[in-house]
Amino acid sequence: MTSLHKPLEGVRVLDIATMLAGPFCGTILSEFGADVLKIELPGRGCSMRSMGGLNARSDAGYAWLSESRNKRGVTLDLRKPEGAALFKRMVAEADIVIENFLPGTLERWGLGPDVLKEIKSDLILVRVSAYGQTGPYKGRPGFARVAHGYGGLTYLAGEAGSRPVMPGSTSLADYITGMYAAIGALMSYIARDRFGVGNIVDIALYEGILRMLDDMIPVYAADGFVRERMGPDTVNHVPHSHYATKDGQWTALACTNDAMWQRLCDAMGRPDLATDARYATMPDRLAHREEVNGIVADYFGSMDRDPLLEHLRAFEVPVGPINNVADIFADEHIQERGNLVVVDVEDVGPVTMMGVLPRLSETPGVLRSAGPKLGEHTDEVLAEMGIPEDEIARLREANVI
């Protein structure tokens, strides 16, 4: 029987970050039960509210509704003495603080780690920035696009000899960094429980990208090999690429060893290719990359996509469609897995979002609500802190909240 408890039930998180990387960390924690207070500047809010090209309501777009979900919205100006004082009171009752300002900003506001740790010694402070809290570049600003380039991913994206292109999502580094930040927060929460310490988690936008470069780092260190752009191909395997079908669709084929090549050859009705000296082993195929890709491209181009995929799967060939977002919505497997969920949003109606990941069998995550309206829960949270209504009204009049 599935438990009604959530893994992070009772955990209080203060999310004072902006845009996506830091806030995405908070969103992950919120999905598994943490009470995440999304703290924004009064009157203006987080810049992520205007992210994307389509507004869902007057104060926010769909990106905000999806990526700030499950959070309670609070407005507070940390730059003002009264706002900083209120924040310190919140810190005293919090477990985790998430920030992604330019390094030195919190310190300039009088809210640096030394101050926050004095309030609560075992506080976990998650610090997301473009280049990290240390190093000669720590003061430089940056966004995901810059991180993709600096971390080595953009250099690999594009056709051979052509200009580098965006490697998929413009926000990929933000999401990867948010996940690493969440891992750091969770590891720190475990460490606090076991050892009574509160970590400062320091993660830079480019570092998650750098961590995911296959074996490029040790290979370059060993023999100086610099991987170049190869379009849809990959350096270590052939055929391992994208191939068009007769009906103009695109497919992705992953053939990473000789056994898979044998199965593909059988499926193509060409078992002789598996023993041909030019193609029998992976080194042979790498030496004849263009020929192998040509053979596979001709075969894929002779059939429409769906019957081709069905035929290849019968031979256990790892192959699949290259989906656009419309294909994703129509896919029965994605529907069955609950990858897309619908949330009813006040003043908007039904909004489709991505489901919660990962799945936990006994204490699963949950999607409770869409991103809050600006300051939606400010009064509620301050009342919980014991602040009377007239004081809340005065703070609002002074633009502290």
TrEMBL record:
Signal sequence residues: none
Keyword Transferase tagged: yes
Keywords recorded for this protein, A-Z: Transferase
A matching Pfam family: CoA_transf_3
GO molecular function: CoA-transferase activity
InterPro entries for the chain: CoA-transferase_III_domain, CoA-Trfase_fam_III, CoA-Trfase_III_dom3_sf, CoA-Trfase_III_dom_1_sf
Name of the protein in its database record: Crotonobetainyl-CoA:carnitine CoA-transferase CaiB-like acyl-CoA transferase
Species this chain originates from: Sphingobium subterraneum
